[in-house]
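Q: Sequence in, structure out?
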Amino acid sequence: MKRKAVDMKETPIAKRQREQIPEYCDVQPRKDDSGVALWPASPSAIEDAQTFLKECATSQQKILIVPDKDADGLDAGVIVHRTLTALGADASSIDVHLVGKGNSIHDEQERDAMNRKNPKYIIVVDQGSRRAPPVVDNPDVKSLIIDHHLSDEFPRDALVVSACHYPPVATSSLLTYEICKSLHPEVSISSRRTARFDVQSAWEALLAAKSPKDVLTNHRLLSARAEINEEVERQTHTAPKFSKD
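A: Exactly. Output:
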């Protein structure tokens, strides 16, 4: 027996509904039993981080800041630096470690490099995280990790404040600002990647800036911007390449 042909016009196929994802600013933060928003991270974790920073500033011991090399990480690192000096830390006691291109803080060469700077305190910002040994192999060194990347595992013995489970998820620099803003009124500035991977210049420009204008008129950053524009212009005239798969 022949099957009866189905008239597709009479039996429309139901369209699959696309999942509606709310805009970032429309995401509602979690709230505690009193209705107070739990944002940008656990209140107890923020309080612990504030205590850690105040201890760093008053200890007069060596402090090492380890920011990620992008705009978010560098901004967060500068906020930490300015907060520490505003709280009384001597700028000469604060050092920065910029992780090498293609490396992570968990690589042995980076852990050794950080340890050789003899810090008493290490503040890691925006580096992402995973289960790992302590940030450095020295039980006397205290470590704070400020981050927003999704992870429930972190280096052993580190104090952690993470925004990843507190929507809308803050950037690391915003999280850092929220931690530091009540500690001292002197806080707040951005960087871009270039082919030269000149993170040091971006860090120094942000650290020296007193206002956004200082960043906009910095000679090295203006040079980097011209370099980026030149590379973008060159790439717009390059034919795309496709892999076999």
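The chain has a mean pLDDT of 84.
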